[in-house]
Amino acid sequence: MAGRGTDIKLGEGTIEAGGLAVIGTERHESRRIDNQLRGRAGRQGDPGVTQFYLSMEDELMKRFGSDNMKSMMERFGMDDEAIQSKMVSRAVESAQKRVEGNNFDSRKQVLQYDDVLRQQREVIYKQRYAVITAENNLRSVIEPMIQNVVNFVVQSNAPRQEDREEWNLQGIIDFVEANLLPEDVISVDDIKNMETKDIQDFILEKVNEAYNEKETMLPEEEFNEFQKVVLLRVVDTKWVDHIDAMDHLRDGIHLRAYGQIDPLREYQSEGFEMFEAMIGSIDEEVARYIMKAEIRQNLEREQVAKGDAIDPNEGKPLAKKQPVHKDQHIGRNDPCPCGSGEKYKNCHGKEK
């Protein structure tokens, strides 16, 4: 409608007639849009004129009390007469100012909500970029994650020395065996007389030993790629789930206002807690994949790629079947010469 940036060339005789006339059939909620429409006339020093026509049925007029004015006009018998008054123009501009103020507050609130997710996005993208561009071993990134997981588990199950009788040492062992180390590497007897910090150091020492052993299973380049894939997949999956959860939180957070609670402050607070929980979940899942994933050459995958059959019991490629010449004298119960390992009668000797 406003045609911002558009110059309308005046044809022959238009200047003599007074230039371009722009007629507006209603007033916009924003005065800026009205001014852009007015600006189509009088471009580049050309003459022109603008005129706006308003109706009491316009949305802007309805919103700010046109019913009272219509009733007054009906009482004075002015149903179909046009009104030209600066008072009406000022009233319209005042209505536009109030609408602009409301829209500004709405945009400001939207930006405040978006700012919560923006700050979280910067943290995740910074971490993700560091992983993508890393050329060296990512162990320096993964080890702090493992340490955070171990510290959290130990402190959750063995919080304070004065509550030692309530410590859940078996819970620590169960978690470590399920997520970090093979079974029977550590036991409750190993840690029952230790302090909380000593338990953490003991577990981390065992984890580092297992980590060192895992590094020797693949060439350095392949192991680094394995670590990078694990990190990126976990971070991406958790981040997508977090965005979805934040959207659900935002959809219903305005209802907190009925309880005299600031929705924005609640969104910021709960959003931070959800982000912290996501970071903890990333650390735990990365630690589990790095420490528990089996790193070995996948013989079956390689052989399938070559088109070879695999023995499901031994995991070795089966011998390829060889063509059988009919002039050979083979007993029905003799091994089939094709190399399948089956009797001749059950393989190439089957009756057609």
Structure, described:
This protein has 352 residues and is an all-alpha fold. 56% of the residues lie in helices and 3% in strands. It contains eleven helices and two strands, in the order E-H-E-H-H-H-H-H-H-H-H-H-H. The chain has helices spanning 31-38, 59-63, 66-75, 86-133, 139-157, 169-179, 188-191, 196-215, 220-253, 263-292, 299-306, and strands at 20-24, 48-52. A two-stranded parallel sheet has the order 1-2. The chain is elongated, with a radius of gyration of 39 Å. The relative contact order is 0.06.
Structure keywords:
352 residues, mainly alpha, two-stranded parallel ribbon, 11 helices
Helix-strand category: mainly alpha
Portion of residues in beta strands equals under 5%
User: DSSP helix count?
Assistant: 11
Radius of gyration: 39 Å
Number of strands: 2
The main sheet orders its strands as 1-2
Summarize model confidence as the mean pLDDT. 78
Amount of helix: 55-70%
Termini separation: 82 Å
For the biggest sheet, the summary is:
2 strands, parallel
Uncertain segments are 298-307
Q: Which geometry do the CA atoms define? A: elongated
Task: Give, in order, the helices and strands.
Answer: EHEHHHHHHHHHH
